[in-house]
Amino acid sequence: MCLGCVTISFNIAAIAAVIPVISFEFGLSDFEASKIIPFYLIPYGIGALIYAPLTRFVSYRNVMVCTMILFAVTCFVCGAAQSLGYILGARILMGVTAASAIPLGLMVIGELFEKQIRGRLVGGFFSCAFIASLAGIALSGVANWRWLFYVPGIGGILLAVSFFVFGSGYLNRVHVGHINYVRALRNIKIRNVFIFIFAISFLYHGVHKWYGIYLSRVYLLNQFEISICFIVVAIGGIFGQILGGVLSDKKGRLVSCLIGVVGLSIGLMLLIGIYPIMILGLILMLVSIGWTVGHNGLSTVLTDFPDEDRPMIASLNSSVRFISGGLGFCVSAYFVEKSFGLTFFSIGILMLLLSFTLKHIVAEH
Prior knowledge:
globular
């Protein structure tokens, strides 16, 4: 399951880094080329709702085999595309198929492992995503952007074959139990956690997914320099996932969430200024660590809910994060065109205000 996370995560951050290059190759503005972000995020969020119900009838292994094959096909289409339109069309199906990996991974963690170690396992699981993202970002600095699609396409094919040939006995199982998203959301504790996740993802993606264009326009960095900044962000993310897992297990979910969201808020507010590149790198790392520490805390909270709710929660988690992230990116486009710094500062203030609600949402878990 970790390899599935690696495959779908390889180009998530790197695509944002190469938007200026894609826009130049196709003769478009960078804001027009940025459509490739929500054309993936929103379909991913919709697709995430499919897989928990599907695992009642189809084994985990077969779901992963089919989705990884389709994911690979869409990657190859994007890599070979000669216009933005083909990329946007393929990105829709890419998002839907990629959405299988995270919900199924969280379902497996919740079903197989004890509560006391889930935080570290969730941290390790999502660290795989940041390691893959780090590799993709490194590639974006030295290779043509099309390889950001070809590499995960090849990985998807290899992963599908490995699931088919070497899948463990557990992955041959189907999920036993009813899937009812409405029933899960009637639980006020679950609903409140997802309202918070929607809000924070909406705000965060209104910053993070603009990094490539922000660094190109505000700091006038070239593609290699932008990739270096993204590598710094990815390294911070890996450290943050590990730290968040330890904090969640040792100090509690609430502490992890509070440290993460407050650190994230401070980092975003600092982006109102213009800094030497080394200072900027440290701020971007603070933002990344804050996001991932809080992300781990919230994800671990979700694994603590009863077994009968866990499949719905795993799918809702991905769905809410990506749909809200795509919407946040689209809404923020109007504001970042006016001012990146003021937009990021305002989002940081809203994040800080949002942190005051955490005690009521997470305290009982």
